[in-house]
Amino acid sequence: MKKKYYLLFFFILLIGLALRLYHIEFGLPHSFYADEPEISELAIKYTYEFRSIVRNGDYYKLIPISFVYGTFPAYFFTLANMAFSKSLNLLGIGFGKFELFVFLRVINAVVSTFIVVALGVLAQKIFKKKSVTLLAVALTALNWKLIVHAHYVNADILQTTLLVFSYLTLFIYYKKKPDNLFTVLTGVLFGLAVGTKITTLIALPIYYYIFLVKKDCRGLVGMTLVALIAFMISNPFSFILSDRFLFRIMTMFTKEAGLVFDSVDLNPFKYLGVIAWIATPLVFLVSLYGKAVALKLKESRHFHIFLVTNVLLYVLFFSLQKRYVERWLLPVLPIVLIYASYGFYKLQERLNSKIVFAFLFSIIMGTYVYFPVLLMQQFLRWTPKSEAYLWAQENIDPLEKVLVYTEEGLDPMNKLPGSKVHVVKVYTDEGAQYFTPDDTDYYDYVVISSRPLQNYKRPAVRQEFPFYYEKWSEFENMLADNEHFELVNQFVLPKPNLIPLSDVYIYKNLSYVKVPINIDR
Predict the structure, then answer these.
(1) Helices (H), 320-353
(2) Is the pLDDT higher at 3 or at 515?
């Protein structure tokens, strides 16, 4: 029986890893995703400049692009990349930048799989039920949001992994007498998580709660000091350049927390919707039931308070922001899933009919599995942006002029001859509200991504900046005018777009008249 349990555990883990590796190369080498290059490019750059930096003492070259996301992800992926490139060199295997990017994504996918392992172990230690453990493993392995972020290099997966392991070490500490080993491990994991994303500090008070419950003030101080040391090692420039670090933190309350066109949402309950959406609504409801039952348990009650309060702290903190960003709640998603697995277990106990429970479970899991299945249709070798670029490269004459509007600084259309690429601004403190479309009369083609078209229609943007809304609305209406423009191709994903990648539309200007060149001049 025990052997079957471990085989099933391992089988689910393999499925989770396979889903995370499916088309891990999506978009490359033409199109990147989100802020991935900010970590990957640094890791590759550091790999080949590290000796020179150390030899010449040029440590300033290691200063991070963003202190908020810390340097730990860049350093972590640099070490992995150095080992990979050195191994290939020793084996005489040739490789390029494409292979390095894919390798870093594979490392990220493997790291994401450790979330599944850690949560499974935590579920077994807390609830001591094999069925709860296997359900927790299955829900985490199949969660669509974790699969999405496992596909590209990002700080959020690393932060979530570190925090889930810190939940595990803290629980072991909680069940033992004051223990130096697990106090130190918790401090190291939490400190590295802060060195990955500074917003990890949201949960620090509730970590202290466990130490206070144990009446272990010495452990509390020790954990704090260890976390601080781990943070300093993983993000040394936050201390060396403390003034810049503090300034960057302050901008979180102005730039990131201001009106940002691509994510502004003034609904005060939006993050309740976020956590329900990324866990899927029905599983979220089961999780609420699981939390309610678990909080009544005498055994480990304080730790249940710790886990549930973590979710509440994240939801409340980000609800004060004006932005809707799903990945910000990734660190507490595993907590929601572990209580969903316990909720299923308690529902099975409460329902007299096994047939009724099997019916409900099938419906809920059927809707849950639908999302990763849909992702398999969205994670393809070519993204809409890379497809659009390849089509334009083949079908648009190099002498023809192309106007491009995109949300990505590294949009592949930058490589297209004759293209003028505009990255549509989203931060109001950078003048996003003054960024209006160009006159299209002088272009043969207009290429537009769907995200900028969605952003100007957001209610908060429309209300705050009516002139901006009016200009973009006129621009979109003009593209829809069949007398002046023809939609020659479009590259779109099935909906709902879970990744999400921007769809791309290519319009031909039917009214564009080329000015003849007078060779007599």
Answers:
(1) 333-350
(2) 3
